[in-house]
C-alpha cells in the first residue's frame, strides 16, 4: 500500500543539515576511494537503487522502508559494490540513529549530487524503517543491455516520461562501471566526480565502437577511453530520446533543472508526504564556509 511519510516533529532543517555536513565532510576526507573518484557516485547509486525497487502496479518497494539495510536487498547482484556505500554510511547512522535508513540513503544521494557541484535537490524526511519481511525480491533494477524500448518500458513502472528518463540517466556523468560489479568496465580515463552534462556531450560527440569487454559483454568504447552501456547508447537510438540528449548536451542548466525534478520524484516514489510539508534545501559545505 501507499507509504505515508511521518516527519520527526522534534527535528528541524538544522538537524538534517548536520547529517548532510557529516556525509559531505566524510566524502571530502575519504577522497582516495576508487582511484580518487571518491564516494559521491556510489552514494548517488545507493539512493537510486533503494528507490528503484518501486513498482507503481502493486505499490511495493521504493526508498520508504530502508530495506537496502537487509542482506536480501544489498546482496541483489544488481547492487554489487554498494556494500561499500552502506559501510561508508554506518558511522553516520551510529552518530544520528534518530534518522530512518530510507531518509539516510536518500539524503546521502542528495548530498553527493550537491557536493559534486550539481543542482540543489529539495528533500523531505519522513521515511519509516520497515521490517525485513517487507524487503522486495531481487531483480527489480534495470538491465544494462536493454534497448530504448526496454528503457522506456522499465521506467514506465515508475510513471516516468521521456524527459525524466533521459535526465535521470545523465547521472552517469558520475563514477564508472567496474568489471567485478556489473561485468562492464570503464571509463578508464578520469571517471568524473563532478556533476555535469558531460554524459550527453560524450554520448553525441565521441566515436563509439561496440566491442566485447574482458567479461565477454558488449559495450561501446571511444578512442578517448570513455564507455557507454548498451542502455546508455540506446538514448541515441530513439528519436525522442535523442532530441532530449541533444538538448541537454547544449544546455547544462536545462539538464540540471530537469535532473533535480526527476531525482526528487525517484527518491520519493511510492511515498505520500503531508501537503504542508515543505522540502528542505541544504547548503553545500562551500556555502557554509
Ligand atoms: C537504464 C537505467 C540504468 C542502468 C541499466 C544502469 C546501469 C549501471 C551500471 C551497470 C553501473 C556500473 C556499476 C558498477 O559496475 O559498479 C552503473 C553505475 C552508476 N549508475 Fe546507473 N544505471 C541506470 C540508471 C541510473 C540512474 C537513474 C542513476 C541515478 C539517478 C544512476 C546512477 C549511477 C551512478 C552514479 C553510477 C556510478 C557508480 C560508481 O561509480 O560506482 N544510474 N549504472
Ligand atoms: N561514466 C560513465 C559514462 N561516461 O560516458 O563517462 C557512461 N556510462 C556510464 C554508466 C555507468 C556508470 C558510469 C558511466
Please outline the helices and strands:
Layout: E1 3-4, H1 13-29, H2 33-36, H3 40-51, H4 71-74, H5 83-95, H6 101-115, H7 148-156, H8 162-169, H9 179-182, H10 198-205, E2 209-212, E3 218-221, E4 227-228, H11 230-233, H12 239-250, H13 252-267, E5 271-272
Helix pairs in contact: 1-6, 3-6, 8-12, 8-13, 10-12, 12-13
The structure holds protoporphyrin IX containing FE and 3-nitroquinolin-4-amine.
Key traits:
single chain, 289 residues, mainly alpha, Peroxidase, domain 1, Peroxidase, domain 2, 2 domains, three-stranded antiparallel sheet, 13 helices, 5 strands, 44% helix, binds protoporphyrin IX containing FE, binds 3-nitroquinolin-4-amine
CATH architecture of the largest domain: Orthogonal Bundle
What series of H and E elements makes up the topology? EHHHHHHHHHHEEEHHHE
The total of beta strands comes to 5
Number of separate structural domains: 2
Bound molecules: protoporphyrin IX containing FE, 3-nitroquinolin-4-amine
Poorly predicted runs are none
Q: What does the largest sheet look like? A: 3 strands, antiparallel
Mean model confidence by pLDDT: 97
**Tally of individual helices:** 13
**Could you say which structural class the secondary elements and strand pairing correspond to?**
mainly alpha
Distance between the termini: 43 Å
State the CATH topology of the largest domain: Peroxidase, domain 1
Overall geometry: globular
Cα-atom radius of gyration: 18 Å
- The CATH class of the largest domain, by name, is Mainly Alpha
The share of residues in helices is 40-55%
What portion of the residues fall into strands of 2 or more residues?
under 5%
Strand line-up across the major sheet? 2-3-4
Amino acid at each position: 500500500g501507499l507509504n505515508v511519510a511521518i516527519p520527526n516533529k522534534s527535528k528541524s532543517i538544522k538537524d538534517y543539515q548536520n547529517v548532510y555536513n557529516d556525509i559531505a565532510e566524510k566524502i571530502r576526507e575519504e577522497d582516495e576511494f576508487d582511484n580518487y573518484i571518491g564516494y559521491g557516485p556510489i552514494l548517488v547509486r545507493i539512493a537510486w537503487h533503494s528507490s528503484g525497487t518501486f513498482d507503481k502496479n502493486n505499490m511495493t518497494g521504493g526508498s520508504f522502508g530502508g530495506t537496502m539495510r537487509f542482506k536480501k536487498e544489498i546482496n541483489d547482484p544488481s547492487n554489487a559494490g554498494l556494500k561499500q556505500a552502506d559501510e561508508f554510511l554506518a558511522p553516520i547512522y551510529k552518530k544520528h540513529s534518530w534518522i530512518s535508513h530510507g531518509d539516510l540513503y536518500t539524503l546521502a544521494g542528495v548530498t553527493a549530487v550537491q557536493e559534486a557541484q550539481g543542482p540543489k535537490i529539495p528533500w523531505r524526511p519522513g521515511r519509516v524503517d520497515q521490517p525485513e519481511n517487507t524487503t522486495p525480491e531481487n531483480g527489480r533494477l534495470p538491465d544494462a543491455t536493454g534497448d530504448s524500448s526496454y528503457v522506456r518500458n522499465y521506467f514506465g513502472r515508475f510513471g516516468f516520461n521521456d524527459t525524466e528518463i533521459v535526465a535521470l540517466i545523465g547521472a552517469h556523468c558520475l563514477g564508472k562501471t567496474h568489471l567485478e560489479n556489473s561485468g562492464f568496465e570503464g571509463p578508464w580515463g578520469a571517471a568524473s566526480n563532478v556533476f555535469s552534462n558531460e554524459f550527453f556531450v560524450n554520448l553525441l560527440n565521441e566515436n563509439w565502437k561496440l566491442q566485447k569487454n574482458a567479461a565477454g559483454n558488449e559495450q561501446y568504447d571511444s578512442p578517448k577511453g570513455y564507455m557507454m552501456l548498451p542502455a546508455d547508447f540506446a538514448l541515441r537510438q530513439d528519436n525522442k530520446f535523442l532530441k532530449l540528449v541533444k538538448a541537454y548536451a547544449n544546455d547544462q542548466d536545462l539538464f540540471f533543472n530537469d535532473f533535480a525534478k526527476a531525482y526528487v520524484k525517484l527518491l520519493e516514489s511510492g511515498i505520500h508526504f503531508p501537503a504542508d510539508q515543505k522540502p528542505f534545501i541544504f547548503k553545500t559545505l562551500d556555502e557554509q564556509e
